[in-house]
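Handout, section 4.2: multi-component inputs.
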Amino acid sequence: MQSNKFSNDLLFQYIQNGDTTTIILSAPYTIGWVGIGFSRDGMMVGSSAMVGWISKHGHAKINQFYLRGRRLSEVIIDKGELPLNNVPAAVATNGAEIHLAFQLQTTTPFQKQAILLAFGSKYPQNHHLSRHEDKTAIVFDFSAGLKPFLTAV
Amino acid sequence: MANSRSWTQIWPLFVRVCFLNLVLNFKITALADDSGNGGVTTENTCKNTNYHTFLPPPYQNISHMICTPVWHTFELRVSSICCCLVVSSSTHSSILFSHDLLKPIIHFDLVQIGLICYASTELLYIMSSSVSQTTKPNINSTLKFCFVLDTGIHSF
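Output:
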């Protein structure tokens, strides 16, 4: 609990409840996997990614992967440094699109963040991703374009 | 003389070839730019997707998501929310918040314990405050302070 006293004897007390960033990635999809990675330097090695796919049996899967190296064996499922909160990540298809949704809990809000985007055309097997068909790295400014709003509960 | 004449005959042809080469190169460059565009999508709009039908809660209920086309037809939606719980005020019972000190956003009743959710790190101001619930906030008597989510509240 923090409190501050202002002019006119206004005492304002508050609890900061942390920052939750909700992210939904939408991409065209038929088979394979789609991933979004968070990197410190824009490079794949050392980054953590959320990867989603629909299995051959129609099961929706989304997992965090730690990209320890460039080899497929160094892409490790259920590892990573993303500050996921306790809200389960979700993946769903809608027509020919896949949607990956997850929440991150950070003490300091994201600012400019290197994001990796990639997709593969083969289903992950035995918790191993296939090599990506295409990939890119962008810098996404989370602070820009976010319009402030207020709601009282 | 023979050499001079043949150069005179070749020169217009050489100029035409150069011009043709220049035009073709320009067209190829333009086509490459249109198709590749450095991997950046220039469109500034996203598809109007209704998440209520296929995403589970809480993702289907999140409003104020900002959408940006990021790569090919990939779209990234982001909503960043920070919450602060207002507990009490020693003398004031209501407060009026604003982003720009011009337009009020919400009239917040401090008697009730409430939650303020704020979607970015931009500054937030109190436009005015009142000492009783029945008093309408007076915008002219602006009490100004800035509200920075990651470091707390700082008064000017």
